[in-house]
Amino acid sequence: MPQQHTLKNTATFTGIGLHGGNKVSLVLHPAPAGHGVRFRRVDLEGKPEIEARAELVSDTQRSTTLAKGSVKVHTVEHVLAALVGAGVHNAVVELDANEPPIGDGSSRDFARIIREAGVVAQAEVVEPYKVSAPIEITQGETYMAVFPHDSFKVTCTSADKGGRFTQFFSTEVNAATWEKDLCHARTFCFLEEIDFLIRNGLIKGGSLENAIVIRDDAILTNEPLRYPEEFVRHKILDIIGDLALVGRPLLAHVIAVRPSHKANTELAKAIIAQMRRPIEAAQTFAPPPTANGAALATPTAPTPAPAERAAEKRAGAGSSAPSAGTAGPSAVAHNPDAPDQLIRDGATLDIMQVMRLLPHRPPFLMVDRVTRIEGNRIVALKQVTMGEPHFEGHFPGHPIMPGVLQLEAIAQVAGILMMRQAENTGKIAYFMSAEDVKWRKPVRPGDSLVIEVEMTKARGKIGKARGVCFVDGETVSEANVTFMLIER
Known about the structure:
Helix 1 crosses helix 2, helix 1 (77-85) crosses helix 5 (230-243) and helix 5 packs parallel to helix 6. The protein has ten helices and 25 strands. The chain has helices spanning 77-85, 108-117, 175-182, 191-199, 230-243, 261-284, 306-315, 339-342, 351-357, 403-418, and strands spanning 3-7, 11-16, 23-30, 37-41, 49-51, 57-59, 65-68, 71-73, 91-95, 119-125, 129-130, 135-139, 142-148, 152-158, 167-172, 188-190, 212-215, 218-220, 250-257, 369-374, 377-383, 428-439, 448-459, 462-471, 474-486.
């Protein structure tokens, strides 16, 4: 099993942002094992971070944008591709703007600073995900497919709508091919697209210094093409960066025809869904708990992802989440069914485990599953169905999930995280207040509501948290909530 890697030293690059046209500084920092890749906005109060995860994709027009609440980072794909190409699994990408510098429109500068900083192995292993079955996505003239493979390979055909400049390239993606065949390929656009981009303020920093422009059959560039198939090689570069949002190295053969950032990120989400399926199946068919709360039998759990394993190891050394109570001679900490042990870093919780932690019951239980716990952050899922009673009157013929129930979901998920403290076991989280509440898009039957909560304060019986709800990667609501824990 290969080891995880991070940067040996920090790496810095300064340049112009493509969209804003302003000077931007990027600093790559080493990160601990299991950390993954995160973007940090140091120009904003609190220096908020956004994880490089497919569910946080908010826009794919001309580039890939990640968003968490109101915080966004544009054009992340070139940096992510460089990290993948260098074999870096854990890093912090620090920015003083809402986008990285565009450089020359390729990943050349990012690859260079990573090479200069050096890459170092970490003690924990990384477990690549081998695609278990083919996945296909069709969006208009775009076709994406992924098949099981013993390495990471991308085969791509690129062309515009008129069939001009049709190019084909296929390669195994590894450190050698990345440096030689892919990282120098620059972005390109057709002249007829530029007017739209300028009118919408999308390329204030665009020039022939950082892009190739195609006018009819002519290629406008400030230097000769770097590869005979530079256009399709850049498309592969984008695919590598977008699929980095899966969060694990891939063993797969990706086949793409006229790919786009939208299709790339949808494929990433489909791979993640396939990756989670065995875990969900194990939870579905796990035996029910007995009257005393212990399971009749424990199914064999799928091998945890490296980030989950590393997070579990770190849990014993402390985290930014509220700490669990110290175990006495009876060793509560050794009981895997104790609430403070259920809510450990890297854990997932099925509905039966959720009901062991929360007193709420249908129709007022707003959490179906907890999919991720890490430090002071938790992610949960609520499947919104037409059978829920509030849809009968809210509204007839136009069912919409009430916004207050989304707030309640945030509070319930935050309440689960508060149960990490053993002394809080069995208590009820009373909703006290909500601030900075925003409802951005309606939530309808059939939606999968992803609830992400970060605990901002946990002192005694009072908890404060920041919650954001997503549907298909788009923010639908957000709020800062305060709640109090009381005895039942």
